[in-house]
Every structure is written in C-alpha cells, then in structure tokens.
Model the fold of this input.
Amino acid sequence: MPKLFPPVSFALLPRMGMWLALASVVAALAGTASAFFLFALDHATTWRDAHHGVVWLLPFAGLAVGMLYRQVGQSVDGGLNLILNEIHTPKKVVPLRIVPLVLASTVVSHGFGASVGREGTAVQMGAALADQLTAVFRLAPHDRRILLMTGLSAGFASVFGTPLAGAVFGLEVLAMGRMRYDALFPCVVAAILADQVGLAWGIHHTHYAAVEVPPVDWWSVLAVAIAGILFGLVGMLFAKTTRAIGAFMKHRVPCAPLRPFIGGIAIATAVWGLDAYRYIGLGIPDILRAFHAPVRPWDFLGKLLFTATSVGSGFKGGEVTPLFYIGATLGNALAPLLHMPLAMMAGLGFVAVFAGAANTPITTILMALELFGAQIGPFAAIACVSAYLCSGHAGIYQAQRIGRSKHRLHRQAGQP
Done:
C-alpha cells in the first residue's frame, strides 16, 4: 500500500518555511523601497511638467550623475547586468550603496527630462536589499542565487503592481528559453507580498481598463500574429540601437561622466527643435491616450530614439516603461491597418514589444492578463510569442544568457 505522505514531503517543510520567512523579509524591503521611489518619481515628474525649461539643465544633471558614479559607484555601474552576473556566477554581495545611488540617479534623470524607465531601479534595489541577507543567514551560493531572484521578482512586482508577472520575471530574465523552477516558491511569495506592501504604503499604479476583444477567428489570429512579428522587430531595433549608441559613446568618449552630458545636450536640443516634450520621462499620459484615440504614427519611433539615446549615453532608470510607450503607440498605429480594435492593439503592443526586447514572453503574457483582463489572454499569447521568436537573441539585458535558442536555425552546438 503506497504511503500517503512520503518522507520527502516532510523533509521539504523546513526549507519551505525558511524561504517563506526570507521572501517575506525581501518583500517588505523591496515593497517599501519601491513605494518611496515611486513617490519621489511622481514629485520629480510633476515638477518637470510645471517647469518645461529645466530640460536645458539635463546635460548638467547627466554630468552630476556620471560624476557621482565615478566617485562612489564604479563597482555598481553595471546595474541590472551586475545583478544577473551575480546570479550566474556568485562572487560577492552586491554593495548596499547601489540602492541610494540608483534611486537618486533615476529621480534626477526623470526630473530633468531623460527618457528612461523605472523597472531597472526597482529590481536593482530589490535584489541588492535581498542580498544583504546573505551574510546574515550565511546562505550557500545556490541559495544566494535564489535570494537574488526573489529580490528581482519583488522589485518588479511592486513597481508595476503585477505580482504574477513579477514572480515569473525573476525566473525568466536570467536565460532565454530556460527558467529556474527551484526559485518559484520564494519568487511567487515575494512578488505577491511586495505588491501588497507597496499598496499598504499608499502607492497607486496606473489603471488600464479592461479592453474589448474580437472573436477568435482566422483573421484576428493572423492579424495579431502579423502585429506580433512587427512588435518583435521593433523590440530588436530598440535593443540594438541602445547597444550601438552605448558602444559608440564608450569608444568616442572615454570620460564616463561626459557621456550623459553629451546625451543630455542632444536630447534637450531635440526637445526644443522638434517640439518633442512628449518623448521625455515615462510618458504615461501618452500611453493612456493610445488606448482611446489615434496618436501620431511616428510616436513609437520618436520614443525609441529618445530612450535609446538616454539609456545609451548613461542615464539611469531602465527601459521597460518606455517600451510600453513604444508598443502602445505602435499598436495604436497598426490597429486601423489591420482592422482590429484600437485599445486591444495598444494593449498587445504594450506587452509584446517588451516581450521581444527583454526575451520574456511568459512574463508579458501574465502582465497582459493582470493589466487588461483575462479576455485578452489568447491574443496576448500570440502577440508575445511571435514577438519573442522574431526579436533575435540580443535583448536589452546584456548579461542575459541563451539557455536555449529560440528556434532550430540558431541552435548552438550541444543543444538538443
């Protein structure tokens, strides 16, 4: 007669209890840090919107950020790539100073008009705060990897209000085509609790109304697949453009603090010369507008260039929210061409361009469900997977590894 409760089940209980406790602590730290960051970011954005002329000070803000990192932050200048490398090959605990450095630098970047995101800051803070527990609890390298992934999930979930997507992001972002399921339990717990901690502090996430979707038929599936391919190609274009600008700046401008100074001059001049204020900052108002009314068909390209210049020249913050902008406005432009609902196409672009640029299709499918409602699920799956397959292997995170090639044509030697 088989045993109802195998011994292995009881052996797992202490370990599950340990990770429940650790994930709860990580959630409290990451959720609190994200709440403080979002409050500061809101104040900086409100101040910038009330004083449009401060964009001319962006070069000097960039110089200040560059000097700050040169003086006290050279060891943590890798940002999220530093965190990913520590998960792949654990060496030393991530310095705690990365938290105030990246928080202050991102708020300054937004306050003066750089086109950057916020997820990079949140996940760096979450992972760095989580890593401080390594020495306290004397964790082995394997458990430290899981702890860092838990911090990534908590930071992502708390900054966007998407706990399911956040939980999977910490598992999926490490290596395309492969996930670490041994970290699933703590990542899920930390993501859910971190989101609740942020809400308890009073933060308010952007609300997107549930979108109406057409029946699933041959044309709707084909149209969304075509759009998904375009979303993936734009995601690849963004990743490659950002990398190219970054490589060019490093080659041509050896002095690191001068790179954001020069980038700031280019951005401020373009804002003034092209009347392109809408392309700086997060661009939340324009993202929301893309769900309700037609936008300029070139808006996605404008945001792409401003963000690639900002990130490539060294401003801090991340790329994800600008990718939401790029995707939503591109989806808006494609909707009438494909005879599909405007709001649905904006929502699909919102998640699918991110899926292609970050190589995280499962994360983005879950994000679509959490933000736009379950009815968008089948189309989100088609769009995100199509974008993922067509975006190549060079994403926005350079430390992301290829766990398994996206298709057989590019399968590496030794892969099944």
